[in-house]
């Protein structure tokens, strides 16, 4: 079959042609494989080898399948030898090459076929490419196409088979390259492939083909540029961007956009080099950077590694190797600041002040890592922040809750795709100084997974080989005596963490990994009493919420009794986080009222509105001040300050979630009565609560009040509890 195609200009195809009869030009192909089934719907995939292009001369029959007499088209005349045409085609082919390369550059490199094509492009000698392209575009019948026949009958073409091409001779490789650029451009990535395919096939002469293809490429490039621009805006700052760079070209058309891009890139590299030279990084890091920038300069910008190396270098120059803030060590000022920011927490504040005092006297960070342990919302994070403020240091919180991958803390090795530095190095980059206060939040929630133990990542394990024996050394990342050589996997050079002040927080010590627990000083932060919560609310939370909502004490008044109601009926917590949230909700509701009031006042002040048709009298008669319905616009501004009483509380927060009765004695006694019990033992201190129990219930029950467990046991067992529970003398284990 192939022989007859090669040797004859006219041939009769007596197999179905894959072109609709509406289109007179098509590609003859040999089906090499048929895969598919008729169930549940007919769906076949044919693997076919393209042979040549043809034009239908005469349709012989249409049914049961079309048979036509065709003329082979791929007999392009020799490349015309006149100077003018050569120049013209040369320019066209260069243009085609330039745009095709640009398009492939912009495509998604994660598609293996595109990545392979890019590698191929990089491996070809640049000087030869325009010539190669000019010669090979004639052989566009060599591509292997996979045609999927849908039951709708519409054929769809895309490139297949990329294997074994690297080893082919250059001409064949370049055939492949040009074919695939055309096919990639036309069939795979151009949206309009179904419509343009026949047009491209129609273009027989080389010049026509170039002219047909170039605008399509340009259109696609513009589309992709627009898409990338939109995506760029959306990208999260934390996400690393692998830049798509144009590869170096041999042809430069001065003044083009591509030239500007390339200039910018070169400028960036020069800037980067300058930053490396002037940065104050240690020798070891400097050496690595110099080596990497040398590699970068030699790398084609199209290589994925180019972007990775560049990102690495940008991080290296941004890191605060030697940049630090000056500590403010004034213990009196620290005390005032801690007291101003936090009510109660005496034990915690005392220990923090001791810690700071020692630092002031010894001027170093040696000592245990403080770990604040307590229920949520009791101010652990907030105290950490105050410590930073006191010292005049930057503060950075590293949330460890749910972290179960070592590399989250120590970074990924750069060999991984999408590798990133760990949270410690990232934190240093964010704060821009090497002596921040790092709050390791929720160390008790560190997880473990197949990706390693993050707690162990805080314990840097080093294996040192000695000539005689192997010795394993463990280095405590958080210990200033040991952590001057902290090595993040991504950075792969040591960073000195000895100036960082680490503080940890946890809700419980039970789940803190023992190795970590061992090395920290635990300071318990207990929950607050109701009275403390009221004070915290009025001294700290309410003023903070007012400020956040743009309100003043002249506009809102929350009496202490209301705060108590919120604490007892709307929250049930050891800390004050929910209380803070509820206060926020109240402020939001009041802000709406105040804003509406201002709007109404403005309307009343307008003479045209106020005078017209007795407007003021009208609203005085008709409106209800508390209304929040559609008529609010007509209401009078609310009286200031807006008082938050229990009714307002119910309006804003809904009905109380918990009932005050925070004691349960009444409910429990009633339940015991219902269950037919006769005797109830209650703590003596709750005796007063019995007054709330209805008389008839009280009559049916006998009550025993107990002050200690002995009394409870004696009352609980008929005849009393005979075994003495009074402890004898125990031997001290101390
Ligand atoms: N004693 C206090 N004085 C003033 N404000 C406080 C006090 N305790 C807590 N707060 C405030 O309560 C809020 C919650 O505190 P914070 O976030 O520090 O709690 P936490 O103990 O770190 O909670 P978690 O364990 O959930 O992280 C903050 O706005 C904080 O300022």
TrEMBL record:
Residues 1-221 form the Lon N-terminal domain. Residues 609-632 are annotated as: Disordered. Keywords: ATP-binding, Hydrolase, Nucleotide-binding, Protease, Serine protease. GO terms for biological process: protein catabolic process; proteolysis. SMART domains: AAA (SM00382). Pfam families: AAA, Lon_C, Lon_lid, LON_substr_bdg. SUPFAM superfamilies: P-loop containing nucleoside triphosphate hydrolases, PUA domain-like, Ribosomal protein S5 domain 2-like. GO terms for molecular function: ATP binding; ATP hydrolysis activity; ATP-dependent peptidase activity; serine-type endopeptidase activity. CDD domains: RecA-like_Lon. ATP binds at residues 374-381. InterPro entries: AAA+_ATPase (IPR003593), ATPase_AAA_core (IPR003959), Lon_bac/euk-typ (IPR004815), Lon_lid (IPR054594), Lon_proteolytic (IPR008269), Lon_Prtase (IPR027065), Lon_prtase_N (IPR003111), Lon_prtase_N_sf (IPR046336). Residues 609-627 have a biased composition (Basic and acidic residues). Transmembrane segments: none annotated. This is Lon N-terminal domain-containing protein. It comes from Balaenoptera physalus (Fin whale).
């Amino acid at each position: 079959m192939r022989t007859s195609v090669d040797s004859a200009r006219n041939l009769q195809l007596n197999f179905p042609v894959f072109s609709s009869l509406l289109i007179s030009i098509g590609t003859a192909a040999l089906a090499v494989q048929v895969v598919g089934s008729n169930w549940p719907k007919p769906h076949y995939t044919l693997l076919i080898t393209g042979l040549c292009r043809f034009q239908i001369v005469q349709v012989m029959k249409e049914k049961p399948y079309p048979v036509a007499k065709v003329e082979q088209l791929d007999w392009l005349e020799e490349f015309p030898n006149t100077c003018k045409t050569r120049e013209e085609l040369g320019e066209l082919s260069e243009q085609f090459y330039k745009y095709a390369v640009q398009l492939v550059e912009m495509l998604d490199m994660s598609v293996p076929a595109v990545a392979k094509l890019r590698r191929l492009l990089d491996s070809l000698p640049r000087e030869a490419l325009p010539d190669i392209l000019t010669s090979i575009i004639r052989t566009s019948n060599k591509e292997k196409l996979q045609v999927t026949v849908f039951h709708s009958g519409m054929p769809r073409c895309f490139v297949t088979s990329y294997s074994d091409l690297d080893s082919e001779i250059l001409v064949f490789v370049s055939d492949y390259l040009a074919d695939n650029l055309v096919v990639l451009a036309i069939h795979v990535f151009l949206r309009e492939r179904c419509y343009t395919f026949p047009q491209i096939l129609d273009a027989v002469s080389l010049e026509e083909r170039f002219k047909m293809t170039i605008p399509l490429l340009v259109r696609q490039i513009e589309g992709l540029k627009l898409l990338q621009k939109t995506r760029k805006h959306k990208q999260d700052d934390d996400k690393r961007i692998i830049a798509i760079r144009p590869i170096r070209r041999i042809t430069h058309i001065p003044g083009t956009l591509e030239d500007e891009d390339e200039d910018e890139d070169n400028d960036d590299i020069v800037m980067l080099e300058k930053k490396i030279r002037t940065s104050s990084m240690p020798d070891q890091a400097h050496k690595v950077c110099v080596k990497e920038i040398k590699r970068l300069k030699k790398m084609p910008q199209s290589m994925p590694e180019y972007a990775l190396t560049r990102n690495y270098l940008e991080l290296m120059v941004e890191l605060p190797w030697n940049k630090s803030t000056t500590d403010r060590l004034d213990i009196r000022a620290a005390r005032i600041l801690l007291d101003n920011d936090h009510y109660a927490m005496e034990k915690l504040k005392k220990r923090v002040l001791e810690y700071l005092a020692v630092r002031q006297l010894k001027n170093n960070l040696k000592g245990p890592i403080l770990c604040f342990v307590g229920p949520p919302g009791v101010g652990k994070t907030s105290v950490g922040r105050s410590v930073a403020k006191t010292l005049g240091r930057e503060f950075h919180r590293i949330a460890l809750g749910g972290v179960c991958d070592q590399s989250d803390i120590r970074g990924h090795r750069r060999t991984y795709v999408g590798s990133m530095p760990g949270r410690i190095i990232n934190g240093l980059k964010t704060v821009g100084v090497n002596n921040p206060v790092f709050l390791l939040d929720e160390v008790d929630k560190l997880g473990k997974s197949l990706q390693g133990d993050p707690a162990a990542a805080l314990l840097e394990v080093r294996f040192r080989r000695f000539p005689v024996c192997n010795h394993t050394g463990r280095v405590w990342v958080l210990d200033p005596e040991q952590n001057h050589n902290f090595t993040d996997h991504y950075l792969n050079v040591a960073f000195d963490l000895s100036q960082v002040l680490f503080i940890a927080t946890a809700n419980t010590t039970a789940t803190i990994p023992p190795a970590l627990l061992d090395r920290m000083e635990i300071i318990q932060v207990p929950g607050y009493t109701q009275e403390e919560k009221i004070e915290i609310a009025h001294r700290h939370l309410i003023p903070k919420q007012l400020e956040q909502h743009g309100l003043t004490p002249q506009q809102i008044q929350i009496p202490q009794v209301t705060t108590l109601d919120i604490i007892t009926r709307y929250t049930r917590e050891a800390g004050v986080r929910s209380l803070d949230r509820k206060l926020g909700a109240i402020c939001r509701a009041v802000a709406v009222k105040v804003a509406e009031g201002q709007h109404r006042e403005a309307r009343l002040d307008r003479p045209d509105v106020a005078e017209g048709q007795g407007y003021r009298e009208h609203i005085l008669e008709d409106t209800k001040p508390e209304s929040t319905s559609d008529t609010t616009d007509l209401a009078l501004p609310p009286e200031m300050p807006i008082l938050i009483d229990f009714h307002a509380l119910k309006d804003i927060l809904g009905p109380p979630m918990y009932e005050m009765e925070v004691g349960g004695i009444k409910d429990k006694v009633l339940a015991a009565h219902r269950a037919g019990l006769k005797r109830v033992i209650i703590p003596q201190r709750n005796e007063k609560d019995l007054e709330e129990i209805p008389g008839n219930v009280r009559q049916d029950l006998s009550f025993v009040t107990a002050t200690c467990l002995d009394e409870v046991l004696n009352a609980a067992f008929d005849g009393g509890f005979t075994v003495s529970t009074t402890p004898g003398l125990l031997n001290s284990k101390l």
